[in-house]
Amino acid sequence: MGEGKYMELYGFDISELLISKAIDKKIPVERLKVADATKNNYQDNEFDYSYSIGSLEHFTLDGIDKFIAESSRITKKASFHMIPVSKSHTNEGWLTTIQSYFNNTEDWWYDKFKFHFKEVYPIASKWEDNISYGRWFVCINKL
């Protein structure tokens, strides 16, 4: 970044263990908290950008909607979310493998994000496993 420019990073997770690991990695404790992503106490538009990786697909259907709504509410410009989408191009629903999660189509996820954000752009990632491709969903409130 240019001279004098930097990012202030904040984080929250429902797991106290993961927050303690972030503190161990020297992330300032005052920027971290244990919180529920479906109902947090951040202010409207508190952050310019937000992201999630490998978490949203593990929520219930109601939790997914609440998570995305909260993400939109607290994010002024854009939010980025990494989600697995099904290689079969069908909505496989709730799967229980090593982990339990929703393995649905890109269109299914797109509709979930589009309900809360002005613009949504799915972008391929390099991540994949036997049944899913990784997709970033770039969700725009305003730029």
- List SSEs in N-to-C order: EHEEHEEEHEE
- Indicate the radius of gyration in whole angstroms: 16 Å
Uncertain regions: pLDDT < 50 for 5+ in a row?
none
The end-to-end distance, rounded to whole angstroms, is: 19 Å
Spatially, the strands of the biggest sheet line up as 3-4-8-7
Helix content: 10-25%
Class based on secondary structure composition and strand pairing: alpha/beta
Shape: globular
Alpha plus pi helix count: 3
Average pLDDT figure: 93
Can you summarize the main beta sheet?
4 strands, mixed
Amount of beta strand:
25-35%
What does this structure look like?
- The chain has 143 residues and is α/β, with parallel strands linked by helices.
- The model has no long low-confidence stretch (mean pLDDT 93).
- The chain starts with 10 loop residues before the first strand and ends with a strand.
- A four-stranded mixed beta sheet has the order 3-4-8-7. A two-stranded parallel ribbon has the order 1-2. The chain has a two-stranded antiparallel sheet with strand order 5-6.
- The protein has three helices and eight strands.
Brief digest:
With 143 residues, the chain is α/β, with parallel strands linked by helices.
Topology:
Blueprint: E1 11-13, H1 16-24, E2 32-34, E3 47-53, H2 61-74, E4 75-86, E5 94-96, E6 100-102, H3 106-114, E7 119-128, E8 132-140
Parallel strand pairs: 1-2, 3-4
Antiparallel strand pairs: 4-8, 5-6, 7-8
